[in-house]
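ok so for the tutorial part 2 we go from a plain amino acid sequence to predicted structure tokens. step 1 is just haveing the sequence, like this:
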Amino acid sequence: MIKAGIIGATGYAGSELVRLLINHPDVSVETITSKSYTGRDYKSVYPNFSHIDLVCAEENTEELAENCDVIFLALPHGEASKRINVDILSKCRIIDLGADFRLQDVDVYESWYCEHYSKDVLKEAVYGLCEINREKIKGRRIVGNPGCYTSCSILSLYPLLKEDMVRENSIIIDAKSGVSGAGRGLSAANLFCEVNESVKAYKIASHRHTPEIEEQLSAACGKKLVISFTPHLIPMNRGILATCYADLKKEYSYEDIRRVYEKYYKDEYFIRLMDEGIFPETRWVKNSNFVDIGFAVDKRTNRVIVIGAIDNLYKGAAGQAVQNMNILFGLDERTGIDSVPPFPV
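step 2 — the prediction. this is what the tokens look like for a chain of 345 residues:
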């Protein structure tokens, strides 16, 4: 059994991770920690775990590294890099659900986030978008689990950039997220009365997932690109829908583009390509690790419009973290996360 520890188990992503790992046939959840709920039964924080006897322990990263094969960190940005060092990495594997080990350019990270406290181990980190970096993930000691908007946006556009089919600096991503993406912390802007019966854009031209998308899509096309990314908050619990626009470099038919997506994704279990004329909806991926992708060619403007959908807490966080763990430990990637989305939800 893989011995797992979870630091930050009482946020939304952390609780989803606990839920997936306690049902994973090859994992034993050894320790969960929480700064806000130290010493409390986990079921008192999340009553849906009432049949599970787990207690929120005080965090001790060094002790966890001694006792666990893998540590998951579900913490705000800047916190993971304070905890991870060469000694920790010599004892266990690390999967960080935060932003600290996603960006390879530390200057870019610090310009968008804060000071990075473990620059010496950043070079060892791999960006854990499984369908693209599977071979790079194998054998690594530290994985930067991708963000939710980024997972959806990058996978939606990757084949087009890889095959040099779109103008690199024409990309516009219009994305919507459920409120759980904002986290569990108290905020007036996220109260029911503030988000219900309304849709709003936020962090316009300044969202921190922007450089992450740019870095990965730049790597795909071999050129430095700049995108326009605008996120929106939707009055639902979970889910992301990303509508991506890009100018085509020449005239392509639907079949031309379909062949490219099938080239990269036909063997990817967790990526489902929609039939022509069918476009993803968040309800079709909720509570699953699937990414649904559909597209259309706008011949009038010679643009391609790609729509992707994921569950932000599952494929956009905890499910992808488990998928990364499965790769690290040589398991079938689907183990513990191979669930059909429920319906209705």
